[in-house]
Amino acid sequence: MGLQSRHLLGLEGVSKDDIHLILDNAVSFKEILKRPIPKVPTLRGKTVLNLFYEASTRTRISFELAEKRLSADTVNFSKTGSSVAKGETLKDTIRNIEAMNIDMVVVRHAAAGVPLFLTKCVDAAIINAGDGMHEHPTQALLDMMTLREKYGKLGGLKVAILGDVAHSRVARSNIFGLLTMGAEVMVCGPKTLMPYGIDEMGVEVSYSVDAALEWADVINILRIQLERQGKGLFPSIREYHTEFGVTKKRLEKMDKVITIMHPGPINRGVELDSDIADSENSVILKQVTNGVAVRMAVLYLLSGNEGGEESS
Fold first, then answer.
1. pLDDT of residue 97
2. Backbone angles phi, psi at 156, to 5 degrees
3. Most exposed: 26, 131, 157, 280, by fewest CB within 10 Å?
4. 62: domain CATH number?
5. What pLDDT is stored for residue 308 in this prediction?
6. Residue ranges of the chain with pLDDT lower than 50?
């Protein structure tokens, strides 16, 4: 059984059944990753293009490793050193590459909507690895897998998303996915880092870290994305840490254990302290491990799906 969609462009509109299907398959693939030889011939004969127009460490390595574990042939593209520097358009780049018989494309781009655009240019299955400030679906899926492993469920969990919500594609995908799966979601951060209309997405909104911690079972802490911001959204890094940083002192005030998540990369000493990132309540490294399994599941489920509609 495959997904209802030929592509994974985001989690907005993706059904609960499809999310369950991806997560269940990811559990099976995680078992494969524990074997002495963690490789299966599932995608032998398939060719996957990793089309990265933005810098990436975890996502790119995770997709590449997932593809190799599934025995796919991989082609890696980066903007640096390509014909893009000579003026070649995205449309021409992807069409020339597809002429080499590519089956799937994993794309990351600074512009929102590029994965959707590619579905109109080529016949290959498209997987969104992050498009601007729109969505990052596989990150949200690995976050949900990590939470389901720990709690045995997603329904009823209270998840607070803290930080630079306005510029975060991870936050958007998590909101769509978690709400679909029955979790409660709160967003928290400075008013200047909250997107317009966020309260219409079905989430609670708070501007107090202490209130968010008091409410939450889980806190997913976002990186301050200075590269996407204009100037003046908050006075200084030091003040941000004072007002919104997750510290040991803050957590010790809470009469409960709160699970700590972060999509990475971490700005230690800014959004959270090192002793919190490395604590026993942190599942940050488990998120990284689960990323490979989730991406294996997505690649597998899209590799032979000929029908369905595009996921938005």
1. 81
2. 90, -15
3. 280
4. 3.40.50.1370
5. 40
6. 228-229, 305-312
